[in-house]
Write a structure and sequence with these properties.
three-stranded antiparallel β-sheet, two-stranded parallel ribbon, disordered N terminus
């Protein structure tokens, strides 16, 4: 006598995919997008790179590029690249400014920025307002140290200011643009930026990344809330 064989229906792979594997799929998709998008930007802006380099050399002596240690995913420190926008004696100028105008210290503590920063030369100010100084960061994206969209890469000495938000913010790759860059930009305080960066991690998705990239374009072209 042949015993009946008990069969179990097997759901298609898409239906039996574990929930905890979805973020892995999204992360891989995000990485592929980062590579394609950054390659396109770097190739498409090569003439702009040349013009910016000439402008920097004309308005200020010194190197074209500036690199600084920043904190990346998992707390790993990497060198973040930008076009140089400051004089070579930038920190000396800042110390001198605080000595002569102590009231500006409160502005710095609140935003980690100065509306009239003596460290920045004229062409560098243009690069900052238009965010063109950040174009070299697409190289960081290609290297896997950054993403197109994500929390900003914080300086090493700013890590302690993140406080309870540190684990969340450092759980993902930092980005060139993100939630606070499209939510007030330079008008936000440093603490508000931290909260917005943490909020991005909670709500991030491929769709939200695309929307943030689209929202970044008018911010750059019209220099909204930037200095």
């Amino acid at each position: 006598m042949v015993m009946p064989v008990k069969t179990t229906a097997i759901a298609p792979p898409s239906r039996r995919m574990r929930k905890d594997s979805i973020p892995i799929v999204e992360e891989r998709g995000k990485r592929i997008f980062d590579l394609l998008f950054s390659t396109g930007v770097l190739l498409g802006t090569l003439p702009i790179f040349l013009l910016i380099a000439l402008g920097i050399r004309f308005f200020s002596r010194g190197p074209v590029f500036f690199s600084q240690e920043r904190v990346g995913r998992g707390g790993k420190v990497f060198r973040c690249y930008k076009f140089r926008t400051m004089h070579l004696d930038a920190e000396k100028r800042l110390s001198k400014l605080f000595a002569s105008s102590p009231h500006l210290r409160s502005e710095w503590d609140l935003t980690q920025k100065l509306r009239n920063d003596p460290r920045i030369f004229s062409f560098g100010r243009f690069l900052r307002v238009t965010s063109l100084d950040e174009l070299p960061q697409f190289w960081n994206v290609l290297k896997g140290e950054m993403s197109v969209v994500g929390p900003r890469p914080y300086m090493v000495n700013q890590k302690k200011i993140l406080k309870t938000h540190e684990p969340k913010i450092l759980s993902v790759r930092p980005g060139i643009t993100g939630l606070w860059q499209t939510s007030g930009r330079s008008q936000t305080t440093f603490q508000e930026r931290i909260v917005l960066d943490a909020a991005y991690v909670d709500r991030r998705s491929f769709t939200s990344d695309l929307l943030l990239i689209l929202k970044t374009l008018p911010e750059v072209f019209f220099s909204t809330n930037a200095y």
